[in-house]
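Q: My collaborator sent me two sequences in one message, no labels, and asked for predicted structures for both. Can we handle them in order? The first one she listed is below.
A: Yes, handling them in the order given. First sequence, followed by its structure tokens:
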Amino acid sequence: MKVIAAMRGRSRVMLITAMGVTAALTAGACSSSTSSPAAAPSASGSATSGNITWWASPITTSSPDPRTVLINAFEKVYPNIHVKLQSAPTDTDTNRASLITTISGGASSPDVFMGDVIWPAQFGHSGLAAPLSSYFPSSYWSSFAPGLVQGATYKGQVYGAPFFEDQGFLYYRKDLLAKEHMAVPTTWPQLETDAATLVHKGLVKYGYVWQGSSYEGLTCNFMEYLGSAGGTALNSGLTQATLNSPAGMQAANFMHSLITSGATPSAVTTFQEAQSMSAFATGQAAFLRNWDYGWSYSQTASSPSSVVGKVGVTPLPSFSGQPSPGTSNIGGWNLYINPHSKNTAADVTFIKWMTSPAAQTILGTQFSEIPTVQSVRQSAAVKAKNPVLAIVGTTRLIPRPAQTTAYPKVSQAIYTNINSMLAGGTSPSGALSAASSQINSAVSGSGI
């Protein structure tokens, strides 16, 4: 199985503790004199020779190691560039803290590091990552799936090269839908109605399960409903919350309704990836929102899963009158360059190859990771690998509002208030008002 639970969440949603992250990053920022994006110097070293160190967490638990496979393939193309793998912690928070300490201290190694998709603003602002858009032409960035480069951008500079991606999907029980002559839902109201019906008929314990606990995963879920309703969390200048909008109310009211209608159990307020995945894999739920690993987990009897052969997967639904499908939140990992690296030219060569069709095809076909390059996502070889990869080309991606350095506080404002609403502690309008107020306070300050 390819799941790295602690690192990927299993999501690569980066299940981090927002306040701990804020403190760790503050420490890094305080030891750095950089308070705004610095212009990248010309690439140092040789583009075709030299030694570089790549800091990367394990991608899978199975053998062979994708990192080693990719390094070997790269060195065959560039035999005079030697890449040393430095295995990073599997826990994202620990990983980030280690990098902050190392890079803020001026260390030139690692040269390239694999990092969370929500790091660009905070690392760029604090001088912990080099602006890659100074090294790559605009044509390079146009090769990626829509939404990925936006999520890696801070103040007009791209800091992370999309390496592999994750996103939300809707998993469903094909056998239950067939039994009740139900079509695969394409709208959120249809999903709610069908989920509640299956529960009320006694065909399943839970209708629809997802991640509703007070943590980063709930921000991801909320952003999908918000994006599907046509809304945003922040204005284009990242200076004001935009949650208190018709779209925000539609998203919050719907999430609240899922519980009151019986489509979703009230216990969802404690569910993270593991709990929701377990409920679905053990046959207790008809529908599941989860990341790409949901497919392999549900189809592996030893997971344990009792629904092998009974599961379908589809893009997330949308709201009536909005584009279809709905929006899927972006998770995954980028490649960054240490601004103190002495081998920047070789670093650029390495990143360019790792995000090339050749490397991305290896990730997709050999390891079932979601490629970031649009042409590879749409290739027949990748689509044939599994049902998740077959549909990624049809999904719509939405990043979290991580282009602000205040993102940890922005996310915390969202997930704590939405969780309170789901638990009955406040109304949808009250949750949005409180979240908006907290977000406005966060973005008006330094953000870290």
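Q: And the one she listed second?
A: Here it is, processed independently of the first:
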Amino acid sequence: MLTALLAVTCVLASAQSKTNICGAGIEYQDRNMVDYTVTVRVLRGRVIDPAGVAVPRACVALFNSDHSKLLRWVESGDDGRFAMDRIKPGKYWLLTRDPQKAFCPAAARLQLRTSAARSKLIVHMEMKGIDSCSFCEAQ
């Protein structure tokens, strides 16, 4: 009986942690010291840790320009890659969180422009620090 109760508790805790990291319950966060804009043609890229290793199952969330509404989200694959199709050109906010919440969340203003020179995002997940946080760049 105790074993069954522990198994159910573990399953519920696991399901709850998945819900908290990505999905309708994700909330916008911004720990940047300075806001910046990343401009790309399409919304695709890779999430990596400080050593350049892929961060699997990272939640990549797209918010409207005043970050009041979650528009769409995806999880990065085992190789850290992600893509969101059929996003109209415009201004958005991008938020990325790792599943263990070990890294500082990456938040960046995102501008999608068909004429942008760069077409790929790299999300650098960094440990939480006093003057540093995760960030995004276009490549």
